[in-house]
Amino acid sequence: QPVQHLADYRPWPFLLSETRLDLTLAARGTIVRAALDLAPRDPDAPSDLVLDGGAGLQLRALTIDGQAPDPAHVTRDDERLTIAAAALPRAPFTLETEVAIDPEDNTAFEGLYLSGGIFCTQCEAEGFRHITFYPDRPDVMTVFRVTLRSDLPVLLSNGNPVSDAGGVAEWHDHWPKPSYLFALVAGDLVAVSDRFTTRSGREIALNVWVRPGDQDRAGFAMESLIKSMRWDEDVYGREYDLDVFNIVAVDDFNMGAMENKGLNIFNSKLVLASPDTATDTDYERIEAVIAHEYFHNWTGNRITCRDWFQLCLKEGLTVFRDQQFTSDLRSAAVKRIEDVQTLRALQFREDQGPLAHPPRPDRYEEINNFYTATVYEKGAEVIGMLKRLVGDAAYARALDLYFARHDGDAATIEDWLKVFEDATGRDLTHFKRWYTDAGTPVLEMAEDWQDGILTLTFAQSTKPTPGQPDKPARVIPIAVGLIGPDGDEVAPTRVLEMTEARQTFTFEALGARPVVSALRGFSAPVMLTRQLDDATRAFLLAHDTDPFARWEAGRELALSALTRGDEAAQAYIDAIGALLGDEAADPAFRALCLTLPGEEEIATRLAAQGSTPDPDAIHAARGDLARRIALAHQDLLTGLYDAMTVPGAYSPDAASAARRSLRIAVLGLLARIDGGERAQILFGVASNMTERMAALAVLVRLGRAGPALKVLEAEFGDNRLVMDKWFAVQVMAAPPGRAVAVARDLATRRDFDWKNPNRFRALLGGLAGNHAGFHAADGAGYDFTADWLIRMDAANPQIAARMSTAFETWPRYNPDRRARARAALERIAALEGLSRNTREMVSRMIA
Ligand code: B3K
Ligand code: ZN
């Protein structure tokens, strides 16, 4: 398949009014009968009928209006089936096909496959073509009627159930949808069930389907679903539109979850939770992803994407909505900080290297390679900027207009922006650059103070990214507030709208010189640089009224401590002392301030400043700073550790989780000086997985986790999700010099079921997450990872390609590491039969 270009978009030359599928399920030889009601779009311009579908489809029959076409008019290649125009009626006709497929052999988990005896599907982006011949593109939307035949007790598909008897179930989805939203599930499953009454009074049956025995871990997912349904009604006025909503948990899944119409399929790690097996972070993720997939029903399903270049139309918006949801349910300040941390860790990193691309790319070879932090997280940031620029009321009007105007459409970014233009009268031509241009702008701020007038001068610049050498200025909303010398806010937040490369803004009639609180709420995904002394940063950490900016002041202090040495470190240590004693601050906020920037983040910062990160030095500096903090504040920390216990039975609510997060942050610091004593005790007494895992990570770091690992294995050896954590923590938290050896060792275990994406990610993702371990100077991390990418690519190209991003930062390291990383990548590139997925990733990385 050649490179796909946005500019080449053409509508499909046929209209499809209904799809009828009839599947007889079997591990091998599943029979798929498809009937497609078609009509030429323009009967006067006859066109060949080209259907997607590759060599995996064993074609058994093909008819047009019941007649087999002349075989001379039917051709097949590796990717599609073509029926010549000459063989097609000019009027509406029905195409029927019958194919056989083998779900059991499907290790790529795309299309129809088996996961632990459960038949399930994953069709986004282009999986449906592995089930039957079809126009597998998101702008071809139609109603589906599905018949499933199997002896398995539970048979599910999209839409509403029509009948279910004697091993035959029929489903009807009257909402037109593209093929990527098709799904079926067949298996021995049990449901946790509930009901939801919509605001217009319709009764919806809700089910979370799991394997027998897992019901007691599905309750939180159900609660989260009900909250999501209520929230989307309250905040966006969006009601659910079928009689049933089904969620199914499966163990083998390439990503987190999938928003198939009325039948969301989930990675079991994002459904199953109990206090003894899931951490607070797991609970928060489950709540957010259940919401995300549910919210797609409107932003993704009712309004879908015209083509895959528009992916961020549904993903950016749905991430933005799930972020709002979590902010409303939990702490908005904490959620914003967490989201910025994710953005920096994943998206800034991506933007800085060879894989940089805009939220709306204009070319790809393999679309599955573009489900990225840029499309998702930056896509959400762009919507946040838009909302900030137009204001909350106009945002709400624009969204109402979007739903009214485009319901039932396959839409584009242009449609989305037009809605905002029409709702607000603004011209968004310039703003659109955020969608089309890659790279993270660097925003420099300079201050001038004269006669009671404060002048802020901003200059923006963006480094070239692959294929985009020149970077014109963008529209940047810069939220600014002013803090007086006594710590009071003297000017509330004002949004400066920067449109030029360099621009000046003034604040007048000020008494004393204020301290500027800039980029409040992280109002734009940029890297802000400003000359600020540590004392002023410490002042902001103590007094800023904007929680994000307050946290950011601490972050900057920490980074300066980590990259500039002793004196800077003392300023940070003092400031942290003040914060620790601030009883008024939310414990979760204090925990976030107390957690040092990760090694990856430090490396990204150094690279942005033009220096070469040294992974071992970064690791050492970070450990050293943590130790100094612990020594300086031993009493305060010990007091907090004892105070932040959570009485009573475990509850995953935000307030309890906040206290645990502070206690855990403190534990990490104290472990630098107590030899791991507290962690040892905590591991033994804790009854919840949050504290046990936190303690375990500390013990692994200190090289004294042996007994604890044995305990956990004995207790949870048969629980895949817990064992994934068990694998991951040993590699991720290992002392860098040991990380590869530990990974190598774990990979020989019988329960290293590497074809399971979660298990593979636990081990290889764990290593990639151990910055100094992965970048070991001898190249062992690169070689080990490359070996496994090669192996995985033959089984599951999506997972291999995704994991290859472990290498995406390679150009920023020293020549020796660069040479070793490049050699590993070239070894992969040289492989015969490499998938399109991995080939595209690797060639972009070594371009
Ligand atoms: N839309 C899916 C992702 C599909 C990924 C395909 N490789 C999940 C989500 O974003 O909600
Ligand atoms: Zn999504």
TrEMBL record:
Reactions this protein catalyses: Release of an N-terminal amino acid, Xaa-|-Yaa- from a peptide, amide or arylamide. Xaa is preferably Ala, but may be most amino acids including Pro (slow action). When a terminal hydrophobic residue is followed by a prolyl residue, the two may be released as an intact Xaa-Pro dipeptide
Domain Peptidase M1 membrane alanine aminopeptidase: 220-434
All copies of domain Peptidase M1 alanyl aminopeptidase Ig-like fold, residue ranges: 439-530
One Pfam family, short name: Peptidase_M1
Cofactor(s) the protein requires to work: Zn(2+)
Keyword Metal-binding: yes
Annotated SUPFAM superfamilies: Leukotriene A4 hydrolase N-terminal domain (SSF63737), Metalloproteases ('zincins'), catalytic domain (SSF55486)
All copies of domain Peptidase M1 alanyl aminopeptidase C-terminal, residue ranges: 535-846
Top EC class, one word: hydrolase
Superkingdom per UniProt: Bacteria
Sequence similarity: Belongs to the peptidase M1 family.
Protein known as: Aminopeptidase N
The species this protein was found in: Paracoccus liaowanqingii
Gene name per UniProt: pepN
